[in-house]
């Protein structure tokens, strides 16, 4: 196994076992439920966004495969303290990366540790697991209530 994929597995397993921000937020301002019928992943994203548009707190609950949980866990860690506008940009970059439309090594992006997910592109059936939390996040920001990925 390559160093890259070994690191990938370690990070996924760690976040699956000890997901960060895995709870509800009392007094949340935004939330949405996401469902990926291909895999059965169910995720609810909660956020508290202030009037300046900064994500003060982000958390998730639900059940799903290791990739969907790890992705939600890392997403909430990455986005806390960032603005909604920045979150949209990062979602776009993350989506392009896992779809194979952007190379994480290319330099100019805001993905940080999230580049660990670039290996998902090798497994098309798992891409929706990796992006479910992100789609649910955008849904929560736009307050449409529920998102299902087909
Ligand atoms: Zn999944």
Using only C-alpha atoms, the radius of gyration works out to 14 Å
CATH class: Alpha Beta
Main β-sheet: number of strands, strand sense, barrel status? 4 strands, mixed
CATH fold type: Sufe protein. Chain: A
Shape: globular
Order of helices and strands: HEEEHHHE
**Architecture per CATH nomenclature, i.e. the level-2 architecture:** Alpha-Beta Complex
> N- to C-terminal separation?
32 Å
- The proportion of strand residues reads 15-25%
How much helix, percentage-wise, in residues? 40-55%
In total, the number of strands is 4
Helix count, per DSSP? 4
Query: Which structural class should the secondary elements be placed in?
Result: alpha+beta
Ligand list: zinc ion
Provide the number of structural domains: 1
Residue ranges: pLDDT <50 for 5 or more in a row?
A: none
The strand order across the widest sheet is 3-2-1-4
Mean pLDDT: 92
């Amino acid at each position: 196994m390559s160093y890259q994929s070994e690191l990938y597995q370690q990070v996924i397993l760690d976040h699956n076992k000890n997901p960060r921000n895995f709870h509800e937020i009392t007094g949340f301002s935004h939330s949405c439920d996401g469902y990926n019928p291909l895999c059965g992943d169910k995720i609810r994203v909660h956020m508290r966004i202030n009037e300046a548009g900064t994500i003060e707190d982000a958390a998730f609950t639900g059940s799903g495969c290791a990739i969907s949980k790890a992705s939600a866990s890392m997403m909430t860690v990455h986005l806390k303290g960032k603005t909604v506008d920045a979150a949209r940009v990062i979602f776009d970059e993350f989506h392009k990366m896992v779809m194979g439309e952007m190379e994480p090594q290319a330099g100019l992006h805001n993905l940080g540790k999230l580049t660990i997910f670039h290996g998902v592109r090798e497994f098309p059936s798992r891409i929706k697991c990796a992006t479910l939390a992100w789609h649910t996040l955008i849904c929560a920001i736009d307050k449409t209530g529920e998102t299902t990925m087909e």
